[in-house]
Amino acid sequence: MATATETAPVSRPQIRRTQLLIDGRWCDSVSGETFATYHPATEEKIADVAQANAEDVDRAVKAARRAFDEGPWHDMDARDRGALMLKLADLIEQNAEELAALETLDNGKPISDAKAADVPLVIDCLRYYAGWADKIKGDTVPIRGNYFCYTRREPLGVVGQIIPWNFPALMVAWKWGPALAAGCTIVMKPAEQTPLSCLRMADLALEAGIPPGVINVVPGYGETGAALVAHPDVDKIAFTGSTEVGQIIMRDAAQTLKRVTLELGGKSPNVVFADCDMDAAVAGAEFGLFFNQGQCCCAGSRVFVEDSIHQEFVERLVDRAKGRQLGDPFSPATGQGPQVDKDQFEKIMNYIERGKEAGADCKTGGGRWGEKGFFVEPTVFDNVSDDMDIATDEIFGPVMSVLPFSEFDEVVERSNKTLYGLAAAVWTRDVAKAHRLAAQVKAGTVWVNCYDVFDAAAPFGGFKMSGIGRELGEASLSNYTELKTVTMSLD
Ligand code: ADP
Question: Which of 224, 229, 237, 245 to mutate to test the pocket of ligand 1 (most atoms within 8 A of CB)?
């Protein structure tokens, strides 16, 4: 049985940092402007945060350039760089409760998720990449003639990193980990909805001894991100967010031919065959879509269910959706919090209306929950057809579309009938069928009899309009290094 302390709401964290971090110093923006961040469960203002404009971005880029070209980062032994990253991971571990509470306050996600998923994954990711710092190496290349040819993997330089609000701290770790391991310096723009955990992590990075200018943080809206993309002295942009903004970034980055990696949207198929373990598949479909309030780029939002089990599957899914506990995200019992802000809330409600108008069968949910905060009832639409908006567009909310199917080839074709290609899942006891589907589905990640299994070592990213490049794993390191070929005459 849970003790009183395990069930009592977690207290709100202190807000320690709301300014820009440039060259190791906390400062106001040049304009003195700020923007407010809100707690999505109550709509109360949490804090005013300094808003960086193009001049602030320029100051941050100059600091990052200096730290890269002249600063101690440049000359530091790779093993020492890894040690600083481990120190940062240790400090985050020591402050894990505070960081989890900041995520819940700023983003609205349940404290139980922030504690059990977000923060442990942050720590793991930084430790994983700390281990890579002294293992990035080139090759010796046998070429024709009397030459010695080898390659070097050199750090790319100053990287601009622009992240979204759905996993604020985790996205920081995914971006800082490979960049720091490779020896790059960073100017990061957190999402305007959720800057607080990034600022606190930057604070801990300074405390860990990561030198001034290596990590700079410039909170702000899209224009701040655009200034980073336009800056001629930024060598690369790493972006996670919507496909629409990803397209803008790729276009704008072309002016200076920056390297670009993009981790974008999705409309992932979750394919359930009749020969699956039904309990596991129902639980997996629920988790795959409703986790993080449906605010996951890889959410399993198109659940294809084989005809013969369709009715029973939907009944069980609806029971589970109804059983989800919405409420105060600071309460450890809460399983679903609010959406991040009013814009997202309204966008989701609009999609729900469009689903109903198009004739999809709304089995449960479909409305707002409560009177305060941006809560949306867990919603399941059945008998959705492929061309409905709720089946084609990324909703980024707790809205599931169930689509019945009858044949293997049919479901592969329908799964791939999307502009996106981020993730997919398949539930079956037939191993060969699972591998056949995994090979044929156009997605960067395929989960078999599981969903949302993330690990710092496993690459993640999109086919098609879900992105360019890969996050995590060894694959991500190549996005932060340039390959140099050195050829030397042996005559
Ligand atoms: P979402 O739809 O999930 O809010 P966005 O793609 O709009 O995602 O935002 C992701 C990140 O991109 C945020 O940090 C946001 O401020 C930033 N951003 C938005 N517009 C631009 C832009 N034109 N250039 C650079 N960054 C931008």
Answer: 245
